[in-house]
Specification:
Layout lengths: L15 H13 L13 H15 L10 H6 L1 H12 L1 H10 L3 H23 L22 H4 L2 H18 L2 H27 L1
Length: 198
């Protein structure tokens, strides 16, 4: 399956080369990956994969958050900060070295499990307009200035951020994102090995 990515949907400052590299990896190396149902639509999970892939780069400390977007996506930045600080994420970073294909696969598995976690922890928020805005994807909502002048929309963002803060306090379940992603990666690798042998 080919995925559509939009550079503007990244939560970090990036250059065109990084975007092109990930787009190629996603569409020509990780194309057999399937995302399970979660809180976000597939297109947004793919963009989360891109953000996670950026965080796995050796210079990830230099990957700067977009200050403009931190205002709009406070909850998501809280999640990425928790991921960046987690010991298992550091272990994954070290284990892949310069293997960009493996980084892409790890990022997609993490994004998939993160989306499942979001649904589990915040499934009751799925009906909010921030997740049901069919005119644009979640990570491009910051461009809709009309929404940011809407009090109801701002209240939804605040509610989402509050739920994320609460969900992150459950460290045991948050750690399961990494464990389940590693298991999913192992299954994906086994499937690819079997496919090549056939």
């Amino acid at each position: 399956m080919k995925y559509t990515l939009t550079k503007d949907a990244s939560l970090f400052f990036i250059d065109g080369n990084q975007f092109e590299e990930f787009s190629q990896l996603m569409n020509y190396t990780c194309e057999c990956h399937r995302f399970e149902q979660g809180l976000l639509e597939v297109e947004d999970v793919v963009h989360n994969s891109f953000n996670l892939w950026l965080m796995m780069q050796p210079v990830s400390k230099e990957v700067m958050e977009s200050m403009e977007k931190t205002m709009y996506y406070t909850g998501d930045f809280l999640i990425f900060d928790a991921i960046r600080k987690h010991k298992i994420f550091h272990q994954l970073q070290k284990s892949v070295g310069n293997d960009e294909v493996r980084k892409c696969k790890i990022a997609t598995c993490l994004a998939n499990q993160l989306n499942i976690w979001l649904l589990e922890k915040m499934g009751n928020l799925k009906t909010l307009s921030i997740f049901q805005n069919h005119s644009t994807t979640y990570f491009l909502l910051y461009k809709r200035h009309d929404l940011w002048e809407n009090r109801l929309f701002l209240d939804e963002i605040a509610l989402y951020t509050k739920h994320i803060t609460s969900a992150l306090s459950d460290q045991l379940r948050f750690e399961q994102i990494f464990i389940r992603a590693a298991s999913q990666l192992e299954q994906l690798t086994s499937f690819e090995t079997e496919t090549k042998r056939a």
